[in-house]
Design a protein that fits this description.
With 211 residues, the chain is an alpha+beta fold. It is built from 6 helices and 11 strands.
Length: 211
């Protein structure tokens, strides 16, 4: 936001960004909607989703404070996915023309934006890999390993089981059963949403990026 204010004061852009608020469940934009705006998350969380022909919703990935989205609309006429608020959100809305000007004028933002795009591509590839694991037990374990590291074996699940299940294309009931079995088998220790990976031989570090 500060970069926009600076360029506006310098006369390099003629429109200030708009700050929007969304409640959980509200739609920021729909797939195939005309793409005129790029959005940035100030606070809260946004989930990107796609809808299949049968109406099933498939989660892509979540975005939190500091992330930009709707970037596929920079060079396309419509958005390729939908964006839904999953928490109370404050969102910056920037016209495409203004956003492109800012990228040209602010190298630091340009580098940050490129870094985010590279990370999102990596996450998308790893989600595809996870969803190809046929065993629900192994898929859930791979997901958990993607959240931990060799140094950090204990972590907090920062989203509901229902959201995790949608992300890795399982039902919440299957994810819950898999977590119980992993705990019964001594592979993880679970205290509500706190997870500890107990067996290093199950470690998949390096194969999966944080999702």
């Amino acid at each position: 936001m500060q970069a926009f204010e600076r360029l506006f004061e310098q006369g390099l852009v003629d429109i200030k960004p708009t700050l929007l608020t969304f409640n959980p469940g509200e739609i920021v934009f729909h797939a195939e909607e005309s793409a005129r705006t790029i959005f940035g998350v100030q606070t809260g969380r946004i989930q990107l989703v796609q809808y299949l022909e049968n109406g099933q919703m498939v989660n892509q990935y979540a975005l939190e404070s500091g992330a930009w989205f709707g970037e596929d609309g920079l060079y396309r006429s419509v958005y390729s996915h939908s964006a839904i608020a999953t928490q109370p959100c404050e969102i910056i809305a920037v016209p495409k023309r203004i956003f492109l000007t800012l990228l040209r004028q602010d190298p630091e933002l340009m580098l940050s934006f490129i870094s985010q795009l590279a990370e999102q591509l990596h996450i998308a590839k790893n989600l595809m890999m996870l969803r190809c694991i046929r065993s629900a037990h192994d898929r859930v374990l791979a997901y958990l390993n993607s959240l931990g590291t060799s140094q950090q074996r204990t972590f907090f699940l920062d989203r509901p089981i229902k959201e995790i299940a949608a992300q890795i294309c399982l039902t919440p009931e299957v994810v819950s059963r898999s977590l119980r079995k992993l705990q019964d088998d001594g592979i993880i220790q679970r205290n509500q949403l706190n997870i500890t990976l107990l067996h290093k031989e199950n470690d998949l570090d390096g194969k999966y990026l944080r999702l």
